[in-house]
Amino acid sequence: MAAIGKAKKAATIPSETANGITSAIIRVVSMRPRCVAYRVNNVGVWDAAKGVHRGGNTEKGLPDIWCCLNGRFVVIEVKAGKDRQSDEQKHRQFEIERAGGVYLLIRSKDEFLKWFENYTF
User: Fold this and answer.
1) Which of 42, 55, 88, 116 pairs as cysteine with 60 (C-beta 3.0–4.6 A)?
2) Residue 50 sits in which domain range?
3) Digit-coded pLDDT (tens) for 73-86
């Protein structure tokens, strides 16, 4: 009698990473005339020589991507999976929107593309 093997796990589609979403957004924005986007890296780094983690040199809560879209200030906070906005990020959102800027919280490439296609330039 043949041995019954374990059932195969269903194939899962890997979820998008924050780095992948960020890179895609910057490429899309930068391809459009009169638009530019930059990544603002807020993450600290491991200093192997000193054996310590050094915090980043930017203020806490700054958005991941800063854009100028045809003269309009737009920033984007990228979240993937179960990531959530920190209190500092919520405060930055309030400050930017109060000043007339556009603040986006984006969780996927498709979500950004839908917004970008409908944005009035």
Assistant:
1) 88
2) 21-118
3) 999 999 999 999 99
